[in-house]
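REQUEST ID: PR-0412
SUBMITTED BY: lab tech R.K.
PRIORITY: routine
TASK: structure prediction, single protein chain
INPUT:
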Amino acid sequence: MATIKAYIGGTFDLMHPGHVALLKRAKEEYGYVVVSLNSDEFATKYKRKPLMTMLERMNIMSACKYVDEVIMNVGGEDSTPAILTSQAKVIVHGDDWQGEPLMQQMGLTQEFLDKHGIQMVYYKYTPGISTSDLLCRLASLPPASVKKD
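STATUS: complete
OUTPUT:
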């Protein structure tokens, strides 16, 4: 199998089986996975403030056996600097969000992708699990169920 760099951008605030499935498949199909992490500031603007800091998220992603490299998405809404830095030829994303809305959110155009020989690839979204779902599960626990270390 020829190694192709695959770019996966995200916040990855609470690592879960959906993330693992996405990273594993990309690693199996392309051989080299670059994860670009959204900054705390961008994540807060985009969805909500992350529970974990950038450093904590970088440490977790770096420890994942399906991830070869972790970089920061320094451009915020413009992912093109991080994509170019990664030298990826494939951008992988879940199919829960795709097409023009995703392209706009990432600051991408078809012209940019064509110019740099980059392909967008969408993987089937893992149903029944998401960071938002995990946060809801945590919120529904009674206080006595949460033990402090």
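NOTES: The chain has a mean pLDDT of 89.
REVIEWED BY: pending
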